[in-house]
Amino acid sequence: MIEIQSFSREEELVSDYLTSFFKSKGLNPLRSGNNIWLKSSHWDEGKPTILLNSHMDTVKPATTYSLDPFKAQVKDGKLFGLGSNDAGGPLVCLIQAFLHYQGQEDLPYNLIMAATAEEEISGANGIASLIPQLGKIELGIVGEPTLMQMAVAEKGLAVLDCVASGVSGHAAREEGENAIYKALTEIEKLKSFEFEKESAFLGPIKKTVTLIEAGTQHNVVPDSCKFVVDVRTTDVYSNKETVEIINDLLDVEVTPRSLRLNPSGLAMDHPVVKRGESLGMEKYGSPTLSDQALMPFNTIKIGPGDSARSHTADEYIGIEEIEGGISGYINLLDNLNL
């Protein structure tokens, strides 16, 4: 997989490869766009369904790579190559876990294995397009590099376009209403504002002004000031609720670009959390987005590799991490009753 270029929206060849791989195992994968998915044998509509999901797309390689990003190389027990850590390792481990279970007759649940596209850009043609075809999902296990720790909560994202309005005038006279000053007042209000609720695993909602634009020339009082706010939402509010609170707070026009990348959180008494704890897996809250944000059902993010290596030059995953990921997923699914 490393040696097949699979940038977001360009996953066709790696999707072809995975299709051939599953067929070589005697299975009949289904395909939707560049997404590949399979159902376990002995499907029972009366049982809950677990989705095993990770992505096949990658970002483009960093310019500082010293190795060939499209050549899989093993050095000192590490597998190097673009997408090895994010998220080829987790994807391969989930596939192996699925193959381990898919033919068993006495499973207490159904399994769906989905290798999906466009995760790195939260694209519309990835998991979001596939979910309506999968039926009811009780639990999603999302494969991402987490050192095989359980991400029981994940931050969401809402990007807000804000506009402060004023009145234009000549800068040499006491006239007009400066929209920049109004924007600065509202930005300071947002900066000091604290939401009433705080997430146990993700902490407070993080809001950051990242862009600002105003003015036409030096001697004109600007009548409009635009600024962009990056809001990292948490599981104590939905994106919609978060934006409504900010909109009520600020005396500016607030327009969210999208509300689709929601935060997620899993109850601490959920069976998969209890099962992970029994195996010694630690719980934490993840600040980074994944396809969890697009799944409207209970999810947990877990996988081999380290998120700190994602999108870096000379990306790698340890061979032992892959081996541990396969056994870790199998152990997590063993005796799991939803």
What does this entry look like structurally?
The structure is a single chain. With 338 residues, this protein is of the alpha+beta class. The protein has two domains: 12-154 and 263-333, 3-Layer(aba) Sandwich (Aminopeptidase); 156-256, Alpha-Beta Plaits (2-Layer Sandwich), CATH 3.30.70.360. The chain is built from seven helices and 18 strands. The chain has helices at residues 12-24, 84-101, 127-134, 179-192, 239-249, 271-278, 319-333, and strands at residues 30-32, 35-39, 49-55, 73-75, 78-80, 110-116, 139-142, 150-154, 156-165, 169-170, 206-214, 220-221, 224-233, 253-256, 264-265, 283-286, 299-301, 316-318. The strands form five sheets. A six-stranded mixed sheet has the order 1-2-6-3-7-17, sandwiched between helices. It has a four-stranded antiparallel sheet with strand order 11-13-9-14. It has a three-stranded antiparallel sheet with strand order 4-5-18. A hairpin with a 2-residue loop joins strand 1 (30-32) and strand 2 (35-39). Helix 2 (84-101) packs across helix 7 (319-333). The longest helix is centred in the N-terminal third of the chain and has 18 residues, at 84-101. It is elongated and about 80 Å long.
